[in-house]
């Protein structure tokens, strides 16, 4: 199963995604993996990473750091994967020296497809960065365009999609069991 969970900053999407992933792992008796895509730059980045680690503590996740080249990421065995988050992965592929630059959309989508073949359930977190009404510079606008394309294409393939607003998950798509 492929599930996509989106929401704005501080919406509760990470906590919700963790609950979905842990429920699937418990139900199907599968190992639980967390693929972390945020490279922790600066004090705020380090704080965010530490905050997420504390939220996951005791839930059974094995953390795997993967900043670029998701296609080559291996897992110890098939299980439930929580990929957090698509926004960071896309930015890393676009802007990191080891990223794919202009080929970021294809690289990210190929990585998701490869990862789907290596796990039983894949839960992807992404960000809603499109509704603030601000006109950004050309580079940021290109990033938004590419992330938007990735989000649309992944959601089209997803079995489940939800948006978390104020901590409340709203089902957008459901091809089977509820998230």
Automatic annotation (TrEMBL):
Pathway: Cofactor biosynthesis; adenosylcobalamin biosynthesis; adenosylcobalamin from cob(II)yrinate a,c-diamide: step 6/7; Cofactor biosynthesis; adenosylcobalamin biosynthesis; adenosylcobalamin from cob(II)yrinate a,c-diamide: step 5/7. Its EC number is 2.7.1.156, 2.7.7.62. It catalyses: adenosylcob(III)inamide phosphate + GTP + H(+) = adenosylcob(III)inamide-GDP + diphosphate; adenosylcob(III)inamide + GTP = adenosylcob(III)inamide phosphate + GDP + H(+); adenosylcob(III)inamide + ATP = adenosylcob(III)inamide phosphate + ADP + H(+). Keywords: ATP-binding, Cobalamin biosynthesis, GTP-binding, Kinase, Nucleotide-binding, Nucleotidyltransferase, Transferase. Gene3D superfamilies: P-loop containing nucleotide triphosphate hydrolases (3.40.50.300). InterPro entries: CobU/CobP (IPR003203), P-loop_NTPase (IPR027417). The keyword Ribonucleoprotein does not apply. GO terms for molecular function: kinase activity; nucleotidyltransferase activity. It comes from the Bacteria. The keyword Transmembrane helix does not apply. Belongs to the CobU/CobP family. Catalyzes ATP-dependent phosphorylation of adenosylcobinamide and addition of GMP to adenosylcobinamide phosphate. This is Adenosylcobinamide kinase.
């Amino acid at each position: 199963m492929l599930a996509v969970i989106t929401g704005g900053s501080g919406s509760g999407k990470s906590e919700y995604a963790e609950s979905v992933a842990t429920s699937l792992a418990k139900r199907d008796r599968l190992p639980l993996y967390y693929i972390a895509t945020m490279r922790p730059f600066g004090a705020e980045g380090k704080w965010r990473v530490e905050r997420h680690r504390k939220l996951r503590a005791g839930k059974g996740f094995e953390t795997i750091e993967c900043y670029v080249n998701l296609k080559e990421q291996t897992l110890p065995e098939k299980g439930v994967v929580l990929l957090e988050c698509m926004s960071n992965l896309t930015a890393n592929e676009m802007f990191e020296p080891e990223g794919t630059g202009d080929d970021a959309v294809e690289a990210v989508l190929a990585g998701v497809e490869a990862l789907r073949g290596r796990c039983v359930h894949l839960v992807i977190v992404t960000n809603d960065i499109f509704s603030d009404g601000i006109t950004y510079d050309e580079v940021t606008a290109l990033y938004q365009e590419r992330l938007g394309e990735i989000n649309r294409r992944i959601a089209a393939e997803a079995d489940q999609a939800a948006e978390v607003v104020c901590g409340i998950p709203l089902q957008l798509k459901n091809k089977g069991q509820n998230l």
